Amino acid sequence: MSFVERARKSVRWRADAARDKVAEARALSERTVISRTAGRTAPTSRILCYHTVGMPEMGINDITLRRLEQQLAHARNVGYRFVPAMELVDDAVAGPSGSNDPADLRLALTFDDGFRSILTTVAPLLKSLDIPWTAFVVSGFADGRGRNGYDDFLDWREIEKLADDGVTIASHSVTHPNFSTLSPGEIVAELAESREALRLNLGIDSTEFAIPFGQSGNWPAEAQAAAAQAGYRTVYAQSVERRPAGTVARTFVTKFDDERIFRAALAGAFDRWEEWF
Ligand SMILES: [Zn+2]
């Protein structure tokens, strides 16, 4: 199946504004209620998933720069040190929510999709704070293909700037599809072609893949097997408790996450929660 045919199957971010509004309202209400009823539990090591910063048109997955700064300051205040995501992978695969050693709280930051704000806003901030991070990029978007009208994705030269600056660059597919809608051949193509694109355009031999949308329903068992076949050793998902077998949990951060919600997220209040579209 051609790129264009696969791209047609990929879910558009703004394809259905009414549904987006419902999803946002539901997320706000769930995150507020869960954070209020979570009780007091201690923070644990975990891998956070962000998307854009200061791009409010992106909806639920966008946060302001000020809020990101506050979250990082809060994390430092409660004793976290920031590490590359790979440092937490073994614990995250084995345990329910990563390492739970309270004397060694570690936090890893990842940013999905390769939107422009990771270069213009995230990179300068995290560099100034000496915090390592990972960007999961969509190879077709970096090629300038299948962007669905968006001009906001980084191209390969811009992604290369991040890589040169020490940011870990890894794969987030070719067209950002929902893998549960793909044929076995399409699954293989999305995994293999995006990995090859990182090698051709950046000289990076990545073994890390983040599932587009990241929800449990977006990743059939055959995709996990195909990812290993394509050379990936680590597949990042979403919810700690609902993630597919063999994948690594991440904790998603949404635009609704004020300090109370963020604190609850660090303590695992959303380990059963998934974004909903
Ligand atoms: Zn994504």
What is the topological layout?
Elements: H1 3-9, H2 17-37, E1 46-50, E2 52-53, E3 62-63, H3 65-77, E4 81-82, H4 86-94, E5 106-113, H5 117-128, E6 133-137, H6 139-143, H7 156-164, E7 168-171, H8 184-202, E8 208-210, H9 221-229, E9 234-236, E10 251-252, H10 259-266
Bound molecules: zinc ion.
Write up what this structure looks like.
By secondary structure, the protein is α/β, with parallel strands linked by helices. It has one domain (46-266): Glycoside hydrolase/deacetylase (TIM Barrel, Alpha-Beta Barrel), CATH 3.20.20.370. It contains ten helices and ten strands. The longest helix has 21 residues, at 17-37. Residues 112-113, 172, 176, 212 line the site of zinc ion.
Indicate the CATH architecture. Answer: Alpha-Beta Barrel
Secondary structure tally, helices: 10
Quick check: average pLDDT? 88
Oligomer: single chain
Anisotropy-based shape: globular
Number of strands: 10
Structural class, by secondary structure, is alpha/beta
Radius of gyration: 17 Å
CATH level 4 superfamily: Glycoside hydrolase/deacetylase
Number of domains: 1
Largest sheet: 6 strands, parallel
Q: How helical, in percent, are the residues?
A: 40-55%
CATH class: Alpha Beta
Strand content: 5-15%
**Unreliable runs:** none
Ligand inventory reads:
zinc ion
Termini Cα gap: 26 Å
Task: List the secondary-structure elements in sequence, H or E.
Answer: HHEEEHEHEHEHHEHEHEEH
CATH fold naming: TIM Barrel
